[in-house]
Amino acid sequence: MIDSLLIANRGEIARRIIRTARALGIRTIAVHSDVDAAMPFVREADAAVCIGTAPAADSYLRQDRILAAARETGASAIHPGYGFLSENADFAEAVIAAGLIWVGAPPASIRAMGLKDAAKQRMIAAGVPVTPGYLGDDQSPARLQAEADAIGYPVLIKAVAGGGGKGMRKVDAREEFAELLASCRREAAASFGNTQVLIEKYILSPRHIEVQVFGDRHGQVVHLFERDCSLQRRHQKVIEEAPAPGMDAATRAAVCDAAVKAARAVDYVGAGTIEFIADGSEGLRADRIWFMEMNTRLQVEHPVTEAITGQDLVEWQLRVAAGEPLPRRQEDLAIHGWAMEARLYAENPASGFLPSTGPLDRLHFPPGVRVDSGVEQGGAVTPYYDPMIAKLIVHGTTRREAAAKLAAAARDTQVWPVKTNAAFLARAAAHPAFVAGAVDTGFIERHGDDLIPAADPSPAVLAAAAAALLPEGRDPWVGLRGFRVNRTPVTSVAVAVAGSTHLVAQPRAAGHNQDGVLFLDGEAWPFGPPRADMLAGGSEGDGAILSPMPGRVIAVLIAPGQAVTRGERLLVLEAMKMEQALVAPFDGRVAELKVAEGAQVPEGTLLARIATGEE
Ligand code: ADP
Ligand code: ADP
Ligand code: MG
Asked: Which of 8, 134, 171, 500 is least enclosed, having the fewest CB within 10 Å?
């Protein structure tokens, strides 16, 4: 067996590899960039070497420094994880040439599958069904257009060197082809330094079905069944599961056999994934599943396969790399229950999924879920690497049970102040169409409105925030489930949630005076007692005094032109039997007064305007 292992990666996958290596008694060595020095994977490894600065090109992609670190620390093997150098055949060769064990695919297999066009040619030769399309060397726009016309629209233009959902354009009609080809090539040149493309028929009702394969150095290849990764956003996986919904035994046998054939065709050793695209318009059928590409490494979503087979795929990788035979024969592998994984990302679904970075003051996951994460509470999400915070992995006896567990896990995830897609994941996993197994790669786009949480706090959030402001609610982190507004409120409390003020019916009087964050259904809401600047409504800068809620003006304490000082009471509103004073945001004078006592005003009404002296 390997005695010491350097992990040429970071974050959750580095931790994942360390966990298994440690269980097998293998000494672990982390390499890291300077900004990652305090990350859990660095601490958890037996030794760590800083190999450069934050940009991957200066650290995680520096082959020379990684090899030097292996020499210095006496490592006997290198595991590349996924991403970074994991599918770099030159690096694999350099590792082997340095006399180290490469815990990855053979360089020749990586090369054979590295470019999508060459890989497809190879698969055609091996008798594996591939997506119909054009793979030729003639890359002139005219020829590509003619091929696309012949295939029939919609088609997909794919950069042969593409990956990670980049370098792909769907073309719906002939007229769009030239422009989309040009933009695909620009992206491919920038991201992969290669402008070669192929054209594929765009499969309708597309489902992403992939098969986990494993080979050893003794000529054995097995599969560990399929995964369904159809739930995608912009061609990137969001929720993965195993097995695939609606896969019958005959179809499974056909696709898994095709995967084994594909792996054998490139003399595969180690963990690999054969990705297929399926036309799911009439369920999964063996004659409607085509090879798409092979990923010659461990996959992000490998845990769902571990969950249904009871195998540790990193252990398999280490044993195979050390020259041992595969731990199990094909006939000893079986599917148990159903597993799902969701990728928790640092991004904001409400703002078009913009990435969110910053400290992780709160990072909490519910019990009973496998959480593979590279960060911890008190850490941070930096802008340099992948925005994935964690993978939530659940297992159930049935698909329905797994989906319910996944939805609950996402709902009970608490992250602050970094924004996440937790609520989005919870809604997706609980969506009736998802629960029914009606998944294809268009699911998220189709159901986007149901999945993206509203920007404003719900009544449940407001009620919960108000409850938390009561004297007993001292905990700054508040997680609530199924909170209901009391039916017979005796009073109201003003509460500021996410920067705006709301009135909430309350069974008891408010009295607590502390800011906190409320977690409900995967969302996080900062709350606290309302402050003067919030009560004044509009932003401090413009001096607009807006009604923070619908109500009645019960007192006007100012006159036009009057001088006022910051914090001075200007008007009193009454709503839901509670009075609220609106105060001056800064020193100035009353430039406008728009209401009189007794006026009923809707929320957001301009009541008055304060101007500074100079105006
Ligand atoms: P990458 O290297 O970026 O992973 P893939 O070739 O694996 O690229 O494709 C990524 C995703 O794009 C697939 O999971 C699928 O959702 C979609 N896709 C790829 N090829 C097709 C196709 N021919 N028809 C429909 N969708 C496709
Ligand atoms: P972690 O270790 O992930 O922070 P713990 O379950 O150990 O999570 O909780 C740490 C503290 O956070 C607890 O002592 C408790 O005060 C608070 N906390 C955790 N979960 C909740 C929740 N659902 N609601 C309110 N407070 C919570
Ligand atoms: Mg792919």
From this structure: 500
Site to probe by mutation for ligand 1, drawn from 201, 234, 292, 296 as the one with most ligand atoms within 8 Å of Cβ, is 292
Of all protein residues, whose CA lies closest to atom 23 belonging to ligand 1?
202
Low-confidence ranges of the chain (pLDDT < 70): 470-493, 503-514, 531-541, 549, 575-579, 613-615
pLDDT of residue 488: 42
Q: Whose alpha carbon is nearest atom 5 of ligand 2? A: 364
Q: What is the CA radius of gyration of the chain?
A: 29
Q: What is the CATH topology of the domain spanning 538-611?
A: OB fold (Dihydrolipoamide Acetyltransferase, E2P) (2.40.50)
Round to whole Å and give the CA distance between 220 and 155.
Answer: 37
User: What is the Å distance from ligand 3's center to 124 Cα?
Assistant: 18
Q: Which residues make Cβ contacts (< 8 Å) with residue 283, sequence separation at least 6?
A: 246
Take residue 265 and report the two structure tokens written for it.
Answer: 């065709």
- Between the CA of 181 and the centroid of ligand 3 the distance, in Å, is 20
Ligand 1 mutation target, pool 277, 288, 294, 296, most atoms within 8 A of CB: 277
> What are the sequence ranges of the domains in the chain?
4-103, 132-201, 205-336, 338-447, 456-471+501-531, 538-611
Query: What pTM did the predictor assign?
Result: 0.81
In Å, how far are 424, 450, 520 from 453, measured between CA atoms? 7, 8, 12
